[in-house]
From TrEMBL:
InterPro entries: Cyt_P450, Cyt_P450_B, Cyt_P450_CS, Cyt_P450_sf. SUPFAM superfamilies: Cytochrome P450. Residues 1-20, 398-420 are annotated as: Disordered. This is Cytochrome P450. Residues 1-12 have a biased composition (Basic and acidic residues). Keywords: Heme, Iron, Metal-binding, Monooxygenase, Oxidoreductase.
């Protein structure tokens, strides 16, 4: 029998103990009532089969006009999750609008174009590893010191790639990441959330102005060209909204993916040994990390356009629903009794859902895989003895139940030299 509770689970804005929370929610059923910050009632879909079906269900929408509480003014001003609901772009569009916007962006994410980025991703990776060497050396003694791999490697690689794709100047990358962090965090205060959204829109609006005046070989210029060709195809708000979503999704998720993969390999050295022995490859590491410790945990939002039964739970029309990718990734019904074990040789009969499913499947999935496999292969080839500098359980979590990772990743690149 399901482990039911009469009291909806209140999601911790700091995202603590996500996998333990997921286990409890999965035990309650495939669709579980939860309370979001601001006392907003929601439902989390936590089991693999039900989530896969829900993501592709024809009676499930993405446009916030279906969000009953928001439409009726019951969502507090400055709500930290507002951007996920209201930004104009592919992820909040349905039907013809979604197909129109997705078709415009798809042109830059063709398999040929993604594969064409491989040399640039390899070049950026090599440069970052060289800089990592310097960051890990004490300037005075030359001794090896602890370095934050997330800050110096896992972050700048996807940030550089997505910035170059969009035509964003290098000087803007740091600020865009900081603003993105505030937008993704579910602990951000209403005032800071509103300010971060305004600042992000302002920066990306300036990118649009510059690219309109001086087009280049980038996605922003391509979208502007489509807009000029047919003004009805893309509004300025949709253009800025599309860029905002691509900045966030294009680096936050890959940042978390690389971070989580390094953590998993360092805490499971026998799995790293299997890769080195040729019994698994870096693609296997990436896919297993996506399943075992998805970069995104509770992803907002989808809305049933009618009362919809998921398992034995009826989700009322207009309820904001979270897709719990981390919960589905460890569902024993899909992955067997060892679903909570990291195993790079796993060959599951079902594919993980970390890039979504159905019409909103992530367009950047191939690019994320390219970046992560390139980064991990080069990192562990250069530093075969790389190790966490503190226990994994002691690493501070990124303060969010949307993103799933740690805030830092302190490592030693080489073995510690014994003191004489």
């Amino acid at each position: 029998m399901p482990d039911r509770s009469d009291t909806p689970h209140r999601l911790d804005p700091a995202g603590s103990e996500q996998h333990a929370v997921n286990e409890r929610l999965r035990a309650q059923g495939p669709a579980v009532p939860v309370i979001l910050p601001g006392e907003v009632a929601s439902v989390a879909v936590t089991r693999y089969e039900e989530l896969k079906e829900f993501l592709a269900h024809p009676d499930v929408a993405k446009n916030a006009r279906h969000f009953t509480a928001l439409r009726e003014g019951a969502v507090p001003p400055g709500w930290p999750l507002t951007t996920f609901a209201t930004v104009e772009g592919m992820t909040t569009a349905d039907g013809d609008d979604h197909r129109r916007l997705r078709a415009l962006v798809t042109q830059v994410f063709t398999p040929r174009r993604i594969e064409g980025l491989r040399p640039r991703v390899e070049e950026l990776t090599a440069r970052l590893l060289h800089a990592l060497d310097e960051a890990a050396l004490d300037a005075e003694t030359g001794a090896s010191v602890v370095v934050d791999l997330r800050e110096h490697f896992a972050l700048p690689l996807p940030m550089a790639v997505v910035s170059e794709l969009l035509g964003v100047d290098p000087g803007m990358r740091g600020q865009l990441h900081q603003l993105s962090n505030l937008i993704v965090s579910t602990t951000t205060s209403p005032e800071r959330a509103l300010a971060a959204n305004r600042a992000m829109a302002g920066i990306l609006g300036s990118v649009v102005v510059r690219r309109r005046a001086a087009p280049g070989d980038d996605l922003t210029s391509a979208l502007l060209a489509a807009q000029a060709e047919d003004g009805d195809r893309l509004t300025d708000r949709e253009l800025v909204g599309t860029l905002l979503l691509m900045v966030i999704a294009g680096h936050e998720t890959t940042l978390n993916l690389i971070t989580n993969a390094v953590r998993a390999l360092c805490t499971h050295p026998e799995q790293l040994a299997l890769v080195r022995a040729g019994k698994a490859d870096w693609g296997d590491v990436v896919e297993e990390t996506l399943r075992y410790d998805s970069p995104v945990s509770f992803f907002p939002f989808r809305y049933p356009v009618r009362d919809l039964k998921v398992g034995d739970t009826v989700i009322p029309r207009g309820t904001p629903v979270l897709a719990s990718y981390t919960a589905a990734g460890r569902d024993e019904r899909a992955y067997g009794p060892d679903a909570s074990r990291f195993d790079v040789t796993r060959r599951p009969s079902v594919r993980h859902l970390s890039f979504g499913h159905g019409p909103h499947y992530c367009l950047g999935a191939a690019l994320a895989r390219l970046e992560a496999t390139t980064a991990l292969a080069a990192l562990f080839d250069r530093y075969p003895d790389l190790a966490l500098a503190v226990p994994d359980d002691d690493l501070p979590r990124h303060p969010s139940f949307v993103g799933n990772s740690t805030e830092t990743l302190p490592v030693r690149l080489r073995p510690e030299t014994p003191q004489r």
